[in-house]
Structure formats: C-alpha cells, structure tokens
C-alpha cells in the first residue's frame, strides 16, 4: 500500500506530503482546488510523460516520491527480472529537471519508463473518468476478462509463442522472397561464377606473373648485363677479385709484423669471400635466364585473361576477383540448396503455428470459462446499485492471431427491460457507466493482488441510495486493498476511515494547493457542506454527524 506520498514543485503544489490510511481514504475539495493535480503527480510515478510545464518554480526540479509497503504481495519476480533490489518497502521516485529531462528511480536504482510502469502497475491502479471512455473499447473489455480469469500464465505463454511464430514466419517469408529473386538471377550468377572458377585464380598470382614476364621480355639484356657484372668481379685477365687478392696478400704480410694490421687483413679477407660468393650467385642467375618465347606467350595469355576479368567486373586486383568468385559461389550454392532451406523454414513455421494454436486455444478456454460468471456477478451488483433491469451480455469471437490472442470480446449492455443489449458506447449514460465501472472494479479487486486502488470520481452521475451502496462497496474493498477515493458525494465521503481536504492557499504571492487530514469535527463540517452548501444548516450538520457515527459504529462491529 501507499504509506507516504511526497510532491514537490508540481503544478500548483509547492510541497505536499500525504500518509494515507491503510483502508478507505476520502479526498474532497472544491472543483479546481488541486485534486486532479495530485492524480497527475501520481501518474508520473506510474510512468506518464511530463515536461517543464509541470514545474511550480521553473528554476527548481520537480520531485514525486511514493513509499509503498509491498510485504505479502507476490511481486518479487518482477524485481528479479528487472535486476532491482527488493525489500518490504519500495520507494519510487520521479524527477523532472528544469531542462525537462526526466529521471526515474526504484529503490534508488535508475530505471527507464518501461521498467517504472512495469513495477508501479503492480503497486497501484488509478480509475479515472478516462476509464469510462476506455470501457467502450474491445481491448479494455478483453483486459477485464483476462484480469477476472487470472490467466497471466496462459497469456505469457501465448505471447511467447506468438512472437516465436512471427519470427519464424518472417524468416520463411523473407526466404521465399529471396528465393524468387535469386532464381531469376541464378543463370547469370552461375555463368559468372563458373567463368571465375574455371580461371582458377590464386592470390598474388598476378604480381608474380608480371614479374616473370618482365624478365622474359628482357632476357637477353639481363643475361648480357649479368655477364658483364660477373666479369668485373672475376675473369682470367683482370678483375676486382684479383686486385682484392693482392690487397689481402699485402695486409697478411704486414699483419705478421704487427698485430695492429690484423683487423684490416681480416676485413679484406671477408670482403674477398663475399665477392667470390656474389660472383658465383651472379653466374648462377645468368645460367637461369633463358630466352623462352613460348613461356612468355603463355604468361601474356594468362595475364590478358586476368585483366579482362578485372575490367569486366570493375575490380582493381586479383583479390577482388577472388572475393567476387566466393560471393557468387555462395549465391549459387544457396539457390541450389533453396528447396531444403525453404522446406526447413516452412516446417519450423508450421510447428510454431501449431504451438501458437495450442496456446491460443488454452487462452480462449480460460476466457470462455469466466464470461458467464462475470455476467452473473456484474448483473447482481447492478441490481444492488439500482439497476434491476440491467443486463450485460459478453460475446467472444475468434479470428486471426494478434498479440493478445485470437479473441475479440464485446460487452453488450442494456439498462432497461425488454431492450436488446447493444455496444456499451452506444447505450450507456454517464451514471450507468459509473455504476457499471464500480461493479467491474469491485469484482476485479478480489482477483488482483494490488496494494492500492484510486477512484477518481467514479460516482459521477449517481446520487442518493445508489451513492450509499457504492460507498459500501468501496468500504468492503478496503478490507483487502488500500482505497483512495476522490468524490463530490457526501454518501461516499462518510464511508472513509480517513478524510483529506484539498484547498487553495492564497496567502502568499502565488496560489498553492494544499491538503490536510480532517479531524472528526472538520469531517462533520465538510460533509455537511457537501449536503447543504457552504453554510450548512443545523440539520445538515446533524445529518453529517449521524453518517459518520453510523460508519464508526459499523466499523467497530
């Protein structure tokens, strides 16, 4: 339940604190005093959007904080799934900065709005006048049936299977579309692939062939210059090696005379060995160079093929051709294996659809099982609320799978005897909607483990004895739920275990909304004013006192 509410710097509220009673809390006040502002602030805790226009002082941030006692309510799983700390006390805070940036926290852990909504939807439910409009929609009517049926497990299973089916079908549909396109391109892609595959391209092949061809085309000149280089180094008449031999001989002689020349002799000897090695390698390279016109022509043909393929496919090197060949190979292979892949995807889709159908039937059965009990319970409550001839008929039709199942639920209503039930939005008046919503909220309260329920003028359009009965229903609900009811009716106000009064304070330079908890005598005066106007008569005061004493006596019993 909501044990403490703090609202700072929101709309007409400078700072407001509220510690609601565990049972039935009544909130009254003149129109425009700020009751709806309080609900707007609580709506922020439930994840509603906000902007800087909500700031009372535009230079300070807005803070809305609710402290909830959650002991005994089975909501730990949600905290685990959202990786939030769980304790018997849950603190939810929402902050709106001066820049308009919003932040939300659950037990001091930052959360996004989706997580905030998921957590607070298990802590509090607000009935507003907007719900009466929603009641006319098939989607809201389906939610009512699901809440009554308590079919969360079937609904979660269905949604999981629905998502799986959608995913499998999307893969299958995409594969079919790709298959159609790929089959059209298959012949062309296969021709290109076979052409590239037949070429048997190798990495670095082009560079190596170009180097070899360059040597073959200049073989005679290369051979001649290698011969000249060799002769400079080593020939029978006069060469660098012969001169170096002389240098080595002279250095060897003088190194025997003094050790200081030994290093020079060793360097000269090493150079001689290196030059002989170099001469031998030049001779070997000369022997390897052949004038081979046949080989040169073969290489030219091979390079021409590579150049043609590069031009055709607009790539700059052989690596690009190999990459293209592999891509085409994959496309060709995929088309060749399409039948198997399509058959597998189709089988998976059909299996997912069969599982979805099973889940849908289970979910539909859970809904069908509660339609008549809902009609009976609501009919009985409407009779107690002064509508003895009212009838509610719930129709269920099945269709294509949607995220909420295959069922379309329609509430057909008639308030008068002999009148055929029709769609709610077409036949119900404001007071009839209020009584119907009260009946629905009453039967659903026993089906949900929900700490706090807020009613925002659910009594619109009713009065007299009916208002008393609605108040009794709220009081009954308050035994298992914390109820906060905003009302203009004294019959309901007198049922509360705590009564809060919202008013505007004009004492400062800027008007602010405030709230205070009323004492017994203050409650008497407020209820009397609700009965007889601003200056209540002695009879109105007496009536108000009797109403409160009757409720107190009934509560003691």
TrEMBL record:
InterPro entries referenced in this protein's UniProt entry, alphabetically: DNA_recomb/repair_RecN, P-loop_NTPase, RecF/RecN/SMC_N
Keyword Nucleotide-binding (UniProt): yes
Main function: May be involved in recombinational repair of damaged DNA.
Domain RecF/RecN/SMC N-terminal: 2-507
Gene3D superfamilies in the record: P-loop containing nucleotide triphosphate hydrolases (3.40.50.300)
Pfam families linked: SMC_N (PF02463)
Gene coding for it: recN
Name under which the protein is recorded: DNA repair protein RecN
TM regions (residue ranges): none
Lineage of producing organism: Bacteria, Pseudomonadati, Bacteroidota, Cytophagia, Cytophagales
Keywords noted in UniProt: ATP-binding, Coiled coil, DNA damage, DNA repair, Nucleotide-binding
């Amino acid at each position: 339940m909501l044990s403490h509410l703090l609202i700072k710097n929101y709309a007409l509220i400078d700072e407001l604190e509220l510690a609601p009673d565990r049972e039935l809390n009544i909130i009254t006040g003149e129109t425009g005093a700020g009751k709806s502002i309080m609900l707007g602030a609580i709506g922020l805790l439930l994840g509603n959007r906000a902007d800087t226009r909500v700031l009372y002082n535009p230079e300070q941030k807005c803070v809305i904080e609710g402290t909830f006692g959650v002991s005994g309510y089975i909501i730990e799983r949600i905290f685990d799934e959202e990786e939030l700390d769980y304790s018997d006390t849950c603190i939810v805070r929402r902050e709106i900065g001066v820049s308009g940036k919003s932040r939300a926290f659950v037990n001091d852990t930052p959360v996004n709005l989706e997580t905030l909504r998921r957590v607070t939807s298990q802590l509090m439910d607000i009935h507003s006048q907007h719900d009466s409009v929603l009641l006319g929609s098939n989607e809201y009517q389906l939610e009512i049936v699901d809440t009554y049926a308590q079919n969360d497990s079937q609904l979660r299973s269905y949604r999981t299977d629905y998502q799986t089916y959608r995913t499998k079908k999307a893969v299958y549909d995409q594969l079919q579309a790709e298959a159609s396109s790929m089959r059209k391109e298959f012949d062309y892609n296969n021709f290109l692939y076979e052409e590239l595959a037949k070429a048997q391209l190798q990495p670095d092949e082009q560079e190596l062939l170009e180097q070899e061809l360059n040597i073959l085309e200049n073989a005679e000149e290369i051979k001649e210059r290698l011969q000249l280089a060799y002769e400079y180094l080593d020939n029978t008449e006069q060469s660098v090696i012969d001169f170096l031999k002389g240098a080595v001989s002279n250095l060897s002689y003088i190194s025997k005379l003094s050790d200081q020349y030994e290093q020079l002799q060793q360097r000269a000897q090493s150079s001689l060995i290196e030059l002989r090695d170099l001469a031998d390698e030049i001779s070997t390279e000369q022997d390897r160079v052949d004038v081979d016109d046949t080989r040169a022509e073969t290489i030219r043909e091979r390079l021409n093929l590579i150049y043609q393929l590069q031009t055709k496919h607009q790539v700059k090197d052989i690596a690009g051709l190999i990459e293209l060949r592999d891509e085409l190979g994959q496309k060709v292979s995929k088309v060749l294996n399409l039948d198997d892949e399509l058959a597998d995807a189709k089988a998976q889709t059909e299996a997912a659809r069969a599982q979805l159908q099973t889940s849908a039937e289970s979910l539909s059965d859970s809904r069908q099982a509660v339609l008549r009990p809902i009609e009976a319970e609501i009919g009985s409550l409407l009779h107690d609320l002064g509508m003895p001839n009212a009838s509610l008929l719930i129709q269920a039709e099945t269709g294509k799978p949607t995220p909420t199942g295959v069922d379309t639920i329609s509430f057909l209503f008639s308030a008068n005897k002999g009148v055929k039930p029709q769609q709610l939005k077409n036949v119900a008046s404001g007071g009839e909607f209020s009584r119907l919503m009260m009946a629905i909220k009453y039967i659903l309260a026993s089906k949900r483990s929900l700490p706090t329920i807020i009613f925002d003028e659910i009594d619109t359009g009713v009065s007299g004895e009916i208002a008393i009965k609605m108040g009794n229903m709220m009081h009954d609900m308050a035994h298992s739920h914390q109820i906060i009811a905003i009302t203009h009716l004294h019959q309901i106000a007198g049922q509360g275990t705590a009564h809060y009064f919202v008013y505007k304070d004009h004492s400062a330079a800027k008007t602010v909304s405030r709230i205070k908890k009323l004492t017994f005598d203050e409650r008497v005066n407020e209820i009397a004013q609700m009965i007889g106007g601003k200056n209540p008569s002695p009879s109105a005061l007496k009536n108000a006192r009797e109403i409160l004493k009757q409720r107190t006596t009934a509560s003691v019993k």
